[in-house]
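Appendix B. One record, verbatim.
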Amino acid sequence: MENNLAVAEKVASNLLKISAVKLNAVEPFTWASGLKSPIYCDNRRVLSFPEVRNYISAALSNRVRLLYPEAEVIAGVATGAIAHGVLVAQQLNLPFVYVRSAGKQHGLGNQIEGVVPEGKKVVVVEDLVSTGKSSLAAVDALIDAGADVMGMVAIFTYGLDQAQRNMELAKCRLDTLTNYNILLKQAINEGFLHHSNKLTLEKWRENPQEWGKS
């Protein structure tokens, strides 16, 4: 596979082409958290496009092979990264589990679905990282279950300062296939975003909580 920059550019381009990422600086999107944003990412759309899906799952798998050759289990974060995690585990021929945001309210009350023997080396797969809080909650659940979490790989990150701080505090390495800066560059180069709107999107990333209030 290509070098990391080439992969990042191709993944960003693919996400734009299949509308997994939408950009609108004039009519911002509202996230589930209530945050106003000129960008919205839904990487579940990747699953409906076999060529894109295969490329991304191969890229994630290669990243795990390179960074974590000792990995023994792949863990997907529910719900968006379950399918992506399964694809990676299948390519690497490794066991797979997924982690809920909280334990079930019925049955065994499991938060982790699948088997993670204590001490096993686990790599977490995410589809998207915003603030990193939900991703790190999955990491905490795995650690509480006795897993040795080596790090996390994801398709895309907004690159928010809060996410970087959260990852650093948790001492969790995050490696993504592509990121916000590369996506903006590809969006302009390929006509998905006019260059005059670039500053608006850059300002959002600098202070997303205040951006929508102005």
